[in-house]
Amino acid sequence: MSDFSATKKMFSLPAGMIYLDGNSLGPLPLGAQAKMDHVLHNEWGEMVITGWNRAGWIDAPTRIGNRIAKLIGAPENHVVMGDTLSLKVYQALASALELRPGRRVILSDSGNFPSDLYMAQGLINSLGKGHELKVVKPEEVEAAISNEVAVLMLTEIDYRTGRRHDMDALTAKAHSIGALTIWDLAHSAGAVDVDLSRANADFAVGCTYKYLNGGPGAPAFIYVAPEHIDHARPALSGWLGHTAPFAFDLDYRPASGIDRMRVGTPPILAFAALDAALDIWDMVSMADVRAKSLELGDRFIAGIEAQCDMLTLATPRDHEKRGSQVSFRFEHGYAAMQALIEHGVVGDFRAPDIMRFGFTPLFIDEDDVNEAVAIVAEVMRGALWDNPRFQKRSKVT
Ligand SMILES: *Cc1c(COP(=O)(O)O)cnc(C)c1O
Questions:
Q1: What is the pLDDT of residue 206?
Q2: Which of 35, 234, 239, 305 has its CA 20 to 30 A from that of 176?
Q3: Secondary structure letter of residue 259 according to DSSP
Q4: Cα-to-centroid distance, 30 and ligand 1 (Å)
Q5: Which of 83, 116, 158, 184 is flagged as catalytic?
Q6: How far is the CA of 108 from the CAs of 269, 320, 321, in angstroms?
Q7: Can you list the domains of the chain with their CATH numbers?
Q8: Is the entire prediction scored with pTM above 0.90?
Q9: Is 329 an annotated catalytic residue?
């Protein structure tokens, strides 16, 4: 059994704050400081340029990729780290479209994160081959999978509502008509039991600063299935994805295997924090994380629904159909969230009216949920949010 009281002690959690926003930015793992100090002083400080070989920096993107692979059901040496998620979406989509040259439609849904859709729009313009991005409602995706579709590009768990797509079923349907799939795991990796191999996914991408707690701007990851890895041409053909970067050839030839999805120099200092964050995942099983997160989510839903009838649940109740966050709709959601933050419950707001609360058992327990419910009830029933100072919008909501 995973010991969540032990994992909770491995995070720096600000006193007086119940942090329900690990779905946006995970908290600081206590081990990150020592690990970063080590990399700064013993590696960069002592080794300087020789650190690339002596400290193994050059292989860090695949070494850490293998740690992520275990959390998302991917085989060894099929996940590599680098860049940010938006870039990984672009890479996956460009490669996937080339693998389906006769088709022009990219199918996605309105529950996808805008950056994924924007990257697709930008790529379509650059390619100039008449591709079309078709965006349907999440519940209409299955019916919209037709034989013009080249690529089905979806985020498994909706960032607003926490609704979870059926990855296995939608991938099977896409394959049945000859389309490829790209799954964005931004709200899945470290949150739910993902199994890319079982689902037979073609490409997957994700970030590590949300549920994986790698720190603000932590590097992203990309997965390419074994059957595609040596055929997928990298659109971002940087030197570290070359088969022999230090031959300094004038012409690009992709590396074999997942290394071809590398682009440029990897962020070694950011990897230090991420490495420390991933140590915590060695102590738990994803099945336990998932079961406990659903239990905490159920407890929160029951508590809020019993006391706050002005809040409407936006997240599916069915365990199969939801991720690790719970969202409620409220007309004055922005102001209400600012008031909650001032009262020590930190979630976030997504336009137009969604209040999001993340439940990650690594550092949230039953007592936190009970206390959060009591504070939400106090703020909502007393309309404590109804104050001009909670209306002021910051850049980041
Ligand atoms: C968080 C998130 C992103 C953010 O992309 P970055 O390039 O890391 O800023 C993209 N897609 C989805 C689905 C997300 O949830």
A1: 98
A2: 234
A3: G
A4: 25
A5: 184
A6: 35, 21, 18
A7: 4-30+285-390 (3.90.1150.10), 56-281 (3.40.640.10)
A8: yes
A9: no
